[in-house]
């Protein structure tokens, strides 16, 4: 198992409280008050039945008063009809409130995850994120709709019925209500057992979601087939599914013997009540037959909502495990934040000057700084290439330029303004990024391009595609720009995906262009053609190329060579090649 009860107790204690859960309901307090009023009204109307029944048995039938009998029977039918109508309205309102709360929680969690740094996503399985947004919040469905509805309806029915029982005969009422503390204690014990199991169950469900997401995708299938690991993956999935099935059984059956005692006690209560009533009849103040019948009827009205109330309490305790998992993500600190008064720069005023001032950064894996005291000035409109051996810090520097991470010391400035002071919107307009692993949405080509600029015209998309050397390929497709690209762009080759990603960035028209191995998947001919197009497009635009293939950076205005997180050489291609240093060594290896 991925999480034990001890881990769960600590997690729940840190993230879950009754006050925090109740805050989710706060925006809907007026509508909840209306539902509570309907519940009380329905319970009050439902109580009329047993009293009318007592009047029928003790008065109307012995006296053979037919008009009174008709009125009393009609009153019972009217009360039942009114109670049913009020109950239906209450269910509709409760369902709407519950779904609104779940919607708010889903959006809040999704929006919060959007603000987290890349550090969170590189350390977290995608399947686990999906499980918490979809599975865990869906697991609260019963609490927000069914359980909340049953809780209010059952609680109001139990309170009103208990009052009616006391009014009817306080002696019998004491006998009936003494069973309550025992059943509540048993229910609480069962709920605690099932709560811890639910947390383990949801954690294992996350494992299953991650396994499906990783292996039942195009890259996952290719890996499994080419490595001959399909049977092993099936065995692993079988183990996870078996564990989940066992946890499901234990979650639903834990404490079932204790719970059956509650059912037994409630089932025998009418017989014991009749016995107690018979004993009272031996005394000087006996209970009437009508009172006993009404008491049994009230018990029937009491036992069902009381049992529902115990079940709701048991099941609601289980949802604490779901809240613990959801709130754990909501409590993840936001590392990349926007100032309360951020700096905005109009698009027409953006020049594209980049300055790195003693920049340092380290990951949390304890391997030392990935970028160490890097200082560099990139004039507006120039082309700078950043090269170096694997692990030299090139890609990390790209992440810092895009503010996917914040620098630990020093500063990065665009047009003289610290990145941390710029508004997110200004930063996204100033810098366009094409990574070595381009990501495409499962949508049409046009929708992928317009993701960068929703208002772009067809002509503007075609122009950007031509610059990226991808227009002819798109035009040759049966549906042209309306062609679906497939999951992650699976219908396109690696080079085509990179060119589509480049066209998307070009469409945004940023003054600073960051190319992180953007031509790594292109053949030599296409790379040469696109390099010429980029050279044309880059005029008047700052271009930063992070490259492993040095053929793409020979004509850069400045080449920056990194090694172990530091800048060790700078200069143009010819000078660095003649110097005989690290850059010259990289040339030999190409």
Automatic annotation (TrEMBL):
<feature type="transmembrane region" description="Helical">
    <location>
        <begin position="69"/>
        <end position="93"/>
    </location>
</feature>
<feature type="domain" description="ABC transporter">
    <location>
        <begin position="354"/>
        <end position="589"/>
    </location>
</feature>
<keyword id="KW-1133">Transmembrane helix</keyword>
<dbReference type="GO" id="GO:0005886">
    <property type="term" value="C:plasma membrane"/>
</dbReference>
<feature type="domain" description="ABC transmembrane type-1">
    <location>
        <begin position="33"/>
        <end position="318"/>
    </location>
</feature>
<dbReference type="InterPro" id="IPR003593">
    <property type="entry name" value="AAA+_ATPase"/>
</dbReference>
<feature type="transmembrane region" description="Helical">
    <location>
        <begin position="259"/>
        <end position="281"/>
    </location>
</feature>
<dbReference type="GO" id="GO:0016887">
    <property type="term" value="F:ATP hydrolysis activity"/>
</dbReference>
<keyword id="KW-0067">ATP-binding</keyword>
<keyword id="KW-0812">Transmembrane</keyword>
<protein>
    <submittedName>
        <fullName>ATP-binding cassette, subfamily B</fullName>
    </submittedName>
</protein>
<dbReference type="InterPro" id="IPR036640">
    <property type="entry name" value="ABC1_TM_sf"/>
</dbReference>
<keyword id="KW-0472">Membrane</keyword>
<dbReference type="InterPro" id="IPR039421">
    <property type="entry name" value="Type_1_exporter"/>
</dbReference>
<keyword id="KW-0547">Nucleotide-binding</keyword>
<dbReference type="InterPro" id="IPR017871">
    <property type="entry name" value="ABC_transporter-like_CS"/>
</dbReference>
<dbReference type="InterPro" id="IPR011527">
    <property type="entry name" value="ABC1_TM_dom"/>
</dbReference>
<dbReference type="GO" id="GO:0015421">
    <property type="term" value="F:ABC-type oligopeptide transporter activity"/>
</dbReference>
<feature type="transmembrane region" description="Helical">
    <location>
        <begin position="174"/>
        <end position="191"/>
    </location>
</feature>
<feature type="transmembrane region" description="Helical">
    <location>
        <begin position="151"/>
        <end position="168"/>
    </location>
</feature>
<dbReference type="Pfam" id="PF00664">
    <property type="entry name" value="ABC_membrane"/>
</dbReference>
<dbReference type="GO" id="GO:0005524">
    <property type="term" value="F:ATP binding"/>
</dbReference>
<dbReference type="Pfam" id="PF00005">
    <property type="entry name" value="ABC_tran"/>
</dbReference>
<keyword id="KW-1003">Cell membrane</keyword>
<dbReference type="InterPro" id="IPR003439">
    <property type="entry name" value="ABC_transporter-like_ATP-bd"/>
</dbReference>
<dbReference type="InterPro" id="IPR027417">
    <property type="entry name" value="P-loop_NTPase"/>
</dbReference>
<keyword id="KW-0813">Transport</keyword>
<feature type="transmembrane region" description="Helical">
    <location>
        <begin position="32"/>
        <end position="57"/>
    </location>
</feature>
């Amino acid at each position: 198992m991925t999480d034990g009860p001890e881990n769960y107790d600590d997690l729940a204690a840190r993230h879950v409280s009754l006050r925090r859960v109740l805050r989710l309901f706060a925006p809907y307090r007026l509508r909840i008050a209306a539902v509570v009023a309907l519940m009380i009204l329905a319970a009050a109307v439902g109580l009329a039945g047993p009293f009318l029944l007592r009047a029928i048995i003790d008065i109307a039938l012995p006296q053979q008063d037919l008009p009174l009998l008709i009125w009393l029977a009609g009153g019972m039918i009217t009360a039942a009809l009114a109670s049913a109508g009020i109950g239906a309205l209450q269910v509709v309102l409760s369902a709407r409130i519950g779904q609104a709360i779940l919607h708010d929680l889903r959006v809040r969690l999704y929006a919060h995850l959007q603000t987290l740094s890349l550090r969170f996503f590189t350390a977290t399985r995608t399947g686990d994120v999906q499980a918490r947004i979809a599975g865990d919040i869906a697991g609260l469905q019963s609490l927000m709709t069914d359980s909340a509805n049953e809780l209010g309806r059952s609680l109001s029915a139990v309170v009103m019925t208990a009052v009616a029982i006391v009014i009817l005969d306080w002696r019998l009422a004491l006998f009936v209500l003494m069973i309550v503390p025992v059943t509540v204690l048993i229910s609480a014990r069962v709920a605690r057992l099932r709560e811890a199991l639910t947390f383990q169950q949801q954690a294992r469900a996350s494992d299953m979601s991650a396994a499906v997401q990783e292996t039942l995708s195009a890259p996952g299938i290719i890996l499994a087939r080419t490595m001959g690991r399909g049977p092993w993956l099936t065995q692993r999935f079988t183990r996870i599914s078996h564990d989940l099935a066992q946890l499901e059984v234990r979650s639903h059956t834990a404490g079932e013997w204790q719970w059956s005692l509650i059912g037994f006690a409630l089932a025998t209560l009418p017989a014991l009540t009749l016995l107690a009533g018979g004993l009272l009849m031996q005394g000087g103040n006996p209970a009437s037959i009508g009172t006993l019948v009404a008491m049994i009827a009230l018990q029937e009205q009491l036992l069902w909502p009381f049992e529902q109330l115990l079940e709701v309490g048991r099941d609601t305790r289980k949802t604490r495990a779901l809240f613990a998992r959801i709130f754990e993500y909501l409590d993840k600190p936001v590392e990349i934040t926007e100032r309360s008064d951020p700096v905005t720069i109009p698009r027409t005023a953006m020049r594209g000057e980049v300055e790195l001032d003693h920049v340092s950064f380290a990951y949390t894996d304890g391997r030392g700084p990935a970028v160490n005291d890097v200082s560099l000035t990139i004039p507006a409109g120039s082309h700078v290439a950043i090269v170096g051996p694997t692990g030299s810090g090139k890609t990390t520097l790209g992440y810092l330029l895009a503010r996917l991470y914040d620098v630990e010391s020093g500063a990065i400035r665009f047009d003289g303004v610290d990145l941390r002071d710029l508004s997110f919107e200004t930063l996204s307009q100033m810098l366009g990024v094409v990574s070595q692993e381009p990501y495409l949405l499962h949508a049409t080509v046009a929708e992928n391009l317009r993701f960068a600029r929703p208002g772009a015209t067809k002509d503007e998309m075609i122009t950007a595609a031509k610059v990226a050397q991808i227009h002819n390929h798109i035009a040759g497709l049966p549906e042209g720009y309306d062609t679906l690209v497939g999951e992650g762009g699976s219908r396109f080759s690696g080079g085509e995906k990179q060119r589509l990603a480049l066209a998307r960035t070009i469409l945004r028209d940023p003054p600073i262009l960051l190319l992180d191995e953007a031509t790594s998947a292109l053949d030599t001919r296409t790379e040469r053609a696109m390099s010429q197009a980029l050279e044309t497009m880059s005029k008047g635009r700052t271009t930063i190329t992070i490259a492993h293939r040095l053929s793409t950076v020979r004509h850069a205005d400045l080449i920056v060579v990194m090694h172990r997180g530091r800048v060790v050489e700078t200069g143009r291609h010819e000078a660095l090649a003649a110097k005989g240093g690290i850059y010259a060594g990289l040339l030999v290896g190409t």
